[in-house]
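Workshop exercise sheet. Pairs work together: one partner reads the sequence aloud, the other fills in the structure field after running the prediction. Swap roles for the next sheet.
Pair: D.N. / O.F.
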Amino acid sequence: MADVYLSVSSGPGGFNKLQVLKVLRPHLTEQPEFLQMFQDEGRLAARLNHPNIVQTNEVGAEGSRFFIAMEYLDGQPLHRVKARARESAAGFPLEMELFVLCQVLEGLEYAHGLKDYDGTPLNIVHRDVTPQNVFVTYAGQSKLVDFGIAKTLESTETQSGVLKGKVAYMAPEQALRDGLDHRADLFSVGVMLWEAVANRRMYNTRAEVEILHKLIQGDLPKIREVVPDLPLQLEQVIERALALDPEQRYQDAASFRADLVAFLDAFRRVSGRDVGERVSELFAEEREEIGEVIRHEMTDVTGPDAMPASPETMELPSLRGFSTAGYATPSSRGPAQSIDVQAPVNLPPESMPEPAGRRWLFPTLAAVLLLGVAGLAVFAFARGNDEKLDPAVASSELATQATTPAAASSVRVHIEARPKQSTLVLDGVKLDANPYESRHPRDDTPHKLEISAPGYTKRELEVRWDRDVDLRLELAKQVSEEPPERTPDVEPRAPRSGATKPAETKSADPFGELPSVKKPRPKAPTLDKSDPWE
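Structure field:
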């Protein structure tokens, strides 16, 4: 529905701020349902302000192009953390995942209780609380992202016969579209909790029809059958969160979180720093690579030739399932330069007429770091000047602003893809070299560029020859999401027995020893071909 980019706004005195742009795809602006959904998300995002929810900085439109500007999060989505942990000896311990879920519940508690400026409850329901929409930063902070299909009291109703949300995490009433309220989100967290404890998907099938049948029939797998030695206290938390009847479920996120914390009180609770250090360890290589790309692109933005006296904005990369392009937003802060980030997603997002205060250029780096979905990395940058962008530039354009006069009859095209064995196909014709360099007649016609390599996610892009193009592209390796079964050895600390065992009385750390997690040998990985950002 939308394309996601990483951009940087630059200003006087060396001011630079990274932010994420989510832009509605051009062809959807003419479809009332999608436009209404995006506008609903923008209105809602402007009201959300909580440490465990992604922060929105700006909502606006340029002509027919609608965008949402959000804070930049340096980290990974939870589903990628879990997938990487299964491949690593360090892993991602159960207590850390429970810590993340507690933060998610804090964010939901805020969102569910939010009121409008006049005091009217907004009755927000996220409707898509999943590991793909929980982002864990390298500092150990967890944030709920993508309120794109969230429902509020005044939001547009879902089209008849259309389900919104991921079926595997959906509450029964959401599947039946029967009296949906905030308790549906708590069911989704319950599914995530079930999967954290069992270390496997809750349903033993990926077929949505089969999952819906089980859900509607109330045929949910029992956690005790998967983890026989599960402590009763944790089992009761899971069973209550997954109650088929919303009235028997947790009635608010606060009570759910309180019970989860009470369970952790019998053990050693981890800190946000512990979580951040583990995620940083799991993704050390990716973090360094992406950081290097950002440093390189920021040098172009902040250099003497690229940094005008007035503020600029620069666009950086995006994610798998999202197209590539740069966007302009209304602003009075002066010219802007952009480095666009193209990659996975979901996360959390074409060009417009140039406003007086900002210019946007086009794609660069794969935002595996943004919403963490594996995908293509496109690197491009544009030098800023006072020339305005052509409003016809499309969202998937991967062009660098030309330094030659507009009247030039040809443009220089340089395309380089990684890995080196990548195959480049332009308009159905395989290019004879990688990197590819040539000159093409200047035109504004979209050309189809395909990049593929064995073992990597294939990408299809559109490029235009209306200016010089300098592209560096990187495909992401295909990643499996199917987890092996995990049976956590979760045994509460033995109760105190008076003065006979003074050493076991409550210490300065109110949490006792942590459950260890026994992990059986991982199963062969399988590929989840679904796009969590659609």
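Discussion prompt: DSSP finds eleven helices and 18 strands in the chain. What would you look at next?
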